[in-house]
Amino acid sequence: MTKCRRATTLIRLLLAAATGACLTTACGVLPGNSGGSGDTLTVMTFAPMGTKATNMPGMPGMAKAYERWINANGGIKGRKLRVLTCNEKNTATGAADCAREAITKKAVAVVGSYSQYGRAFMAPLEAEGIPFIGGYGVTAEEFQSTLSYPVNGGQPALLAGAGHQLGKACAQVSLVRPDTLAGDTMPVLLNAGLKANNAPEASDIRAAEDAADLMPQAREALADTAPGGSGGGGSKASTTPSPSGSPSASPTAKPSPSPSPSPSSSSASKSCVTAVLGERTETFFDAFRRADSTHRNPQISSVLGSVSQTLVDRTGGKESPFEGALVTSWYPVSTDPLWAPMRKVISDEAFGDDTVEADDSGAQTTWIAYTVFNQIVQKFKEGEEVTARKVARTLNEASGIATGNLTPDLSWRYQDMRAVAGFPRLVNGRVSFQVVQQGRLVAQPGEKDQDMTPVLESAPRSA
Fold it and tell me: Which of 392, 325, 330 is nearest to 365 (CA)?
């Protein structure tokens, strides 16, 4: 009996020693293995697809096209890129599931992704030290987490830019936006831009995110634009904050090429309606046109993520109701030669994927995010293991990451942070102003790109 016990003890000791040796020499697949070890870099891109609300299939589509292109050209510094994609489903559970999959499959970064549920995906990523590069800018967490590296100004810059643009052309503005946490920040940000042009605050009209019938909101917005309407400074809904982002547009009567600088001028005597409802924006403006039986045709506006070149084309091109739309965007117009490299990748690697459009701000953001990731990996030494924490450390130390002039050079060092209440990680507040002319989104004559950071720094806290 004693000999048997000794033998059993010896076997257990040998097994323990063997297991310890295996752990230290990386036998098999073990927890903690890096997605950047060896010759493969694993990353993830997630976005909602096939939902009843906002969908961004162009973001994972662009990521897969980038993967095929970069691997066909030798990878990133000799390493093969492996892109995981995940349907975020436009739910908090879906966002958390995508983050957990990134963790399970050892992604070294999440790149160019979209979700309204920042808390759901950022907390798991933070726990594992996985950086979030180039999100769409829809949530406060993207501008607060020390592991988030936004490439644009997200909703804050767009809405402030839209306010700046409309404040120069409109006597009063009505904002139609989703009745969500992400939508609650929109009035605060839009009003900051309006205030910068001494324009009154916008009236705030809420709509259910997945609403099929937006006629009640259309009638309310139309009533606000009537003489003596309640537009301007409206308090129809609370304006609690929390972000969501995309550029701004406006259809109906063609605006003057160079709107007068103050709302007291004749060109600023018109009423304006701006709707930021994602895929429901078209539904709203269709209802709005039907509600406008007297053809008052107030100026209408939206953000580029809600009104795109594809939408203009689909609704009639030159005859589109969005003809004359004022648009605030993060980036240059899609016809700018600066986008030529991305267009070639789409043409060569995504020719069979109709979800990937060069005009799509989601695809554009994903392209820029992968450009940043590529440059960060280039900074690693030959043969150096690439881990999530090392990628984050390199991002924290890097300065002047170039994106081919699609954005200013980007840096997320402590000294690069700006004093924007609730959005300390916002390092690029630049927006461009566009207009729909002859069925095309073009640069608005007389309006140069502008950094909205000073406007945002003076705005009330909105997150």
Answer: 330
